[in-house]
User: Fold these one by one.
Assistant:
Number 1:
Amino acid sequence: MFEEAQYFAPVAKREDGSVTVELASSHPGFADEVYRERRNAIAALALNYQLGDPVPHAEYTEEEHQVWALVSRELAVKHQRYAIREFLDAGERLGLPKDHIPQLQEVSDRLYPLTGFRYIPAAGLVPLREFYGVLADGYFHSTQYIRHHSVPFYTPEPDIIHEVIGHANTLASDRFAELYRLAGGAARRVESEGALQFVSKVFWFTLEFGVMREASELKAYGAGILSSYGEIEEFRGMDIRPLDLKAMGTTEYDITKYQDVLFEAMSFDQLEDVVGSFWATCDDDSIARIVAEG
Ligand SMILES: [Fe+2]
């Protein structure tokens, strides 16, 4: 078992209908039976979900709401310093609650009138083609659990803080929402697994971990950086490379560590010209040509 390389905890559904989230022994909630029960219950909500239903209500403890309040407050301070303007403006438009964890339905109710995006629950890892594909229809798969309250600034897996503070704030921007839609269209259009991986890696190095020059300062727009209390302080010291499709689509990354290679867009226009145009038109042949370029 490669527990240290685990990203989403595996979810098992037994014949009797019970659902178990298999947390690694290194997970901060591993020894907390009550937390694990809650994780199982939340995973079951997602497994039983049908598209079109309202998102089922997840139960959180008061301690968990306090984790959200603390992390939201601390990240908001860092966003003022490190996030691009487009993200800050979109966050103002969305107006997420700061004192309690929003239900995913509440996130959808705020987001849908702005950019047409809706949140749907995910128990854990969603297959790439499905995760990206439905972005084209304005659906975003989101985990619903929150990290263990003993370590509010750390999570080994993407939790609701990442999904909502990182992604919903970007999805409230018309320009970002269009990029997500285009990524979804690309994932549906490509046929080979290799081409899908390429599309997914470009997403990783942009909408998850992208950085952008803004008024001569390096800022972040990737949801992975903007939802990480530690990583947001480190990205300026990483190996920053120019925005390049071939490099992004073929560079390997380790999901369990801070991303040490990042790609910098010179402007939002450049991000749209290079990455948006790529997703809008790419297919297996065009990706093969990019990979073969010298
Ligand atoms: Fe993400």
Number 2:
Amino acid sequence: MHKPAPTEIPIHELIRERWSPRAFSDKSVPPEVLRSLFEAARWAPSSNNEQPWVYLMATKEDAENFAKMVGVLVEFNANWAKHAPVLALSVAHLKMHRDGKPNRVALHDVGTASAQLTMEANSRGLFVHQMAGIHAEKARETFGIPPDWEPVAAMALGYPGNPDSLPQTLRDRELAPRIRKPLKEFVMTGTWGHTAPFVSA
Ligand SMILES: Cc1cc2nc3c(=O)[nH]c(=O)nc-3n(C[C@H](O)[C@H](O)[C@H](O)COP(=O)(O)O)c2cc1C
């Protein structure tokens, strides 16, 4: 299923075609593809090259660790994400390696790495659905995540499936139009609230 962004201005096809499905095919993701996805995350830029990310992941074939991953998702997410062939959880290092001071942009950098992973996935015909709906403290206990590290977001990934495999409410959301704020609301110049002039040019 395709669900391209109805953009007002042309953008790269890869970005236009990315979306967050909840229906995944049973097809497993080969290890070499998984390596490429995490390699793409690896090469994300980060403040001071801190690379403040770790990904805990499990494939469905690894039933024990997959069940642990499903167990840290909120129920709404677990219900659909358990059908994806791969689940992962991003974790951010909140302190700088060099001096132990707080890394103000750790979550930002983890998001950048996940975005790169997502684009690499899309370029290979896979899709990623990220999830804030996790039990963070349960994740910390389940996986033994150290104190200076913060569970950020889970993700389900795999090849696209059939929306008919979803219950009605999720199927409706799967087929719903994609919407975004207009550029004029979030690209500003000079003073907060002043749209950048090029936007309406
Ligand atoms: C960090 C993050 C957290 C999200 N959390 C959830 C979630 O817990 N459950 C869910 O079903 N979708 C979740 N989503 C998916 C968003 O709802 C989705 O990206 C948004 O509606 C835009 O749709 P699109 O990705 O198809 O363009 C999350 C996305 C991101 C990036």
